[in-house]
Specification:
This protein is of the alpha/beta class. About 40% of the residues lie in helices and about 10% in strands. It has a single domain, classed as Rossmann fold (3-Layer(aba) Sandwich), CATH 3.40.50. A hairpin with a 2-residue loop joins strand 1 and strand 2.
Length: about 325
């Protein structure tokens, strides 16, 4: 009997998918996930937890070694909010609008080894695309601070598709992570037959987190709110991690993390160790930085089907 992982590959994924914890995952990180529960955690660790919108990084259908992951895995696009929030938190810890030296992938939980993560200075700002049930229990025992970033799930599907079909590998003869049609992709995503499972299921598990772990400091951030008032969101983040700053510093950080400036810094200032290659003509990590792009992709029928599944899961109409 075929699994949802098998069905995802049949829909057009060229990377190997597997089932773990009831979710569809890239096979290339399974060795990290299976040892995740035993990882060492520091009391002052800060976890940025998001759904991946660009996971062709994780792994083009081969069993990856840590060396391969170190050299070619890619980061989540800025427009998902992961990079945006991760950079803001780093600046809040530093107390000034100074860019982190490395790409955020230096702290990507499920692709870095434990020894590599141990080299990061405290407080470590770690990001992950895993759901709470796959992460170490010690995070909750130590009451580490957790920031969950979400966005319009239809926009997430579009961003996921674009990067799955544009990722360029070291071996240029290799297919991108997804070679099927947009219609096949939407169908696979609604069914949860994609790497890291459906954005709806992923977000639902994080929405339940405050009730399941009421003693753990938790802050949820919406990508759309970042777009509307980045200064306010910088303040929320800084206060959440007990690093309050002056109003002018909040404004400076928001300005430094604007789409154009963070794009420039990431491509011209930061250490490029974790930078990946993209297909010629691709916009790479920084595609648009906009909201509502799903309207240019979803057909009426696809959108209505998505809404029905959303309402079944969340027990309320699609809110966007």
């Amino acid at each position: 009997m075929s699994t949802r992982a098998d069905e995802g590959m049949a829909a057009g994924f060229s990377l190997q998918l597997v089932m773990t914890g009831g979710l569809v995952m890239p096979a290339g990180i399974l060795h990290h996930i299976t040892s995740m529960k035993e990882r060492r955690v520091r009391d002052d660790d800060i976890f940025v937890c998001t759904y991946p919108k660009s996971d062709s990084r994780d792994f083009a259908g081969i069993v990856l070694t840590d060396t391969y992951i170190n050299s070619v895995t890619h980061r989540t696009s800025l427009r998902t909010g992961t990079h945006w929030v991760w950079e803001m938190l780093n600046m809040a810890v530093a107390g000034e609008p100074e860019y982190a030296k490395h790409w955020q992938n230096c702290s990507f939980y499920e692709s870095r080894t434990e020894d590599e993560l141990d080299t990061l200075p405290s407080p470590r700002i770690i990001f992950t695309h895993l759901t709470p049930d796959l992460l170490p229990q010690d995070i909750w025992n130590r009451k580490c601070r957790v920031v969950n970033v979400q966005r319009n799930p239809k926009d997430a599907v579009v961003s996921f598709f674009v990067q799955h079909t544009n990722q360029n590998w070291v071996d240029k003869s290799r297919d991108p992570a997804f070679v099927g049609s947009w219609d096949n992709y939407v169908d696979a995503h609604i069914k949860g037959n994609v790497p890291f499972d459906s954005v709806m299921e992923h977000s639902l598990r994080w929405n339940r987190f405050p009730q399941e772990h009421p003693d753990v400091p938790f802050l949820q951030v919406q990508f759309e709110d970042l777009k509307k008032d980045a200064v306010r969101e910088v303040q929320r983040l800084a206060e959440f991690i007990n690093r309050p700053l002056s109003g002018d510093v909040y404004e400076q950080i928001a300005d430094a993390c604007s789409f154009s400036k963070l794009k420039y810094a990431s491509e011209n200032i930061k250490d490029q160790t974790f930078h990946n290659r993209w297909r010629e003509g691709s916009s790479g990590y920084f595609r648009k930085g906009e909201t509502g792009d799903w309207k240019n992709w979803f057909t009426v029928a696809q959108s209505e089907r998505f809404d029905v599944v959303y309402q079944q899961l969340y027990n309320h109409p699609f809110p966007y």
